[in-house]
């Protein structure tokens, strides 16, 4: 197997579980050295690091709060200090908060943190990475199919943050094109992760809302991320890649 990302360094923010872990492992299979970040579970992060190292690449985990722009900037600097450079950024860290806009008991602090993690932190990571990446750099953010249609009540705040991510990424793609850096978004559907397990009470309705009638696997989202990180995707920027099981159709 040709290691098309050999000598490349990838940072997967939110890489200790779910889609992030799957993306880190897939990029390692392509030969990239991997840094992952995690919010709280050092044990889970170190377990992923061991799996990555078993694939023959260098790997490291850093703790960072995605909601804190200064912590995100420090994270990017730490990766460059550790590996010497950064070539691929995968923005995967996210939280999910539901609540109707007219619900007087919907906690505003939760809404604010969701926006901080799902948009502000990603924007900070893109800005920080763009300062250290060279030609051929890849920035890939994981979005959500809710930007096409909410589908259910209580998604307004989540939809707003994910929609902002798409708009920012398109603008960043224009800004960074002269440097040879591409910026793209992978829009995921309902994926079987700790945050949204297919055993939840909402699962039957979520499955029925997709054309394929099932949850996705983290590895299926990782495949889309891996494509956008490869040299083959050099002419793809400002794009939205739907890996959502047909949720948007």
From TrEMBL:
Organism (species): Stigmatella ashevillensis
InterPro entries linked to this entry: NAD(P)-bd_dom_sf (IPR036291), SDR_fam (IPR002347)
Identification of the protein by name: SDR family oxidoreductase
Pfam families: adh_short_C2
Family to which this protein belongs: Belongs to the short-chain dehydrogenases/reductases (SDR) family.
Domain of life per record: Bacteria
